[in-house]
Each structure stands twice: as C-alpha cells, then as structure tokens.
Specification:
Elements (H helix, E strand, L loop, with lengths): L1 H9 L4 H13 L5 H7 L3 H7 L3 H13 L2 H19 L4 H5 L6 H17 L8
Helix pairs in contact: 1-2, 1-8, 2-5, 5-6, 5-8, 6-8
C-alpha cells in the first residue's frame, strides 16, 4: 500500500484521502464522493493541529472493512503502536521536526496493513 499512498501524495491528495484511496484500491471497496469530500477537513489535524488525519483515515478503513466490534478491537492495537512510535495522536506532536508527513503516512499504512493481515479472517464479506 505504500506505493499507492506515494502515488496519491504525488497527485496532491491530503494525508487522509491518499490513505483512503490507497486502501480502497488495495482492498477493493468504493469511495463515494461524500467520503472523499469528508476527507478535505482532516488535513493538518483538522486544520487546528488536532488528531492526525492519517490516523483518522486508517480508522475509517477499519470501519469499512470490519464489523463495528472488530474495528473497535483492532483500532486499539493500531493506537498502541502509533502512540509508542509518535508519543501522541495530535498532528503537532506527530509532525514535529518534519517538513511533511510522508514518512508518517507510510509508517501508519504499514501498521494498518499489518493489523488487517492479522485480522483477515474477520473482514466483512462482500
């Protein structure tokens, strides 16, 4: 998924939309225009250095692929891994000392892919 995220970044998509598009392509789900539009407000921690938009997009992917109960369970593991690596969830903490968040986006999609692979048996059937 990293290569897909890089491609969407090169196409000037924000962190959330790049991750959502890459996941949709890899895991073969549709992204409605409304969902795309909703991602426009997630960039730069909701524009106020709030929660990392890349992390939010990963949670959205979990919600699309898994039942509510499974997505909530899996999200805890994703949160723990993210917190351990970045010492926070807010955009200011995560992006501190970076010119952009490409490396963060690539890290988090790797964590997302690992969680999806570990929980593949629970993916909702189409």
């Amino acid at each position: 998924m990293k290569a897909l995220v890089k491609r969407y970044i090169e196409e000037r998509e924000n962190c959330a939309l790049a991750i959502l598009h890459a996941a949709a392509e890899k895991y073969q789900f549709d992204v409605s225009q409304e969902l795309k539009d909703s991602c426009t407000v997630l960039e730069a921690g909701f524009g106020v250095c709030g929660t990392c938009g890349a992390l939010v997009a990963c949670l959205m992917v979990l919600g699309i692929l898994f039942s509510e109960q499974d997505a909530k369970r899996i999200r805890l593991f994703l949160f723990l891994q993210f917190q351990e690596k970045y010492k926070g969830f807010d955009c200011c903490t995560v992006s501190r000392g970076r010119l952009d968040c490409t490396d963060v986006m690539l890290d988090i999609v790797q964590l997302l892919e690992e969680q999806i692979a570990q929980n593949q048996a629970y993916i909702k059937k189409k």
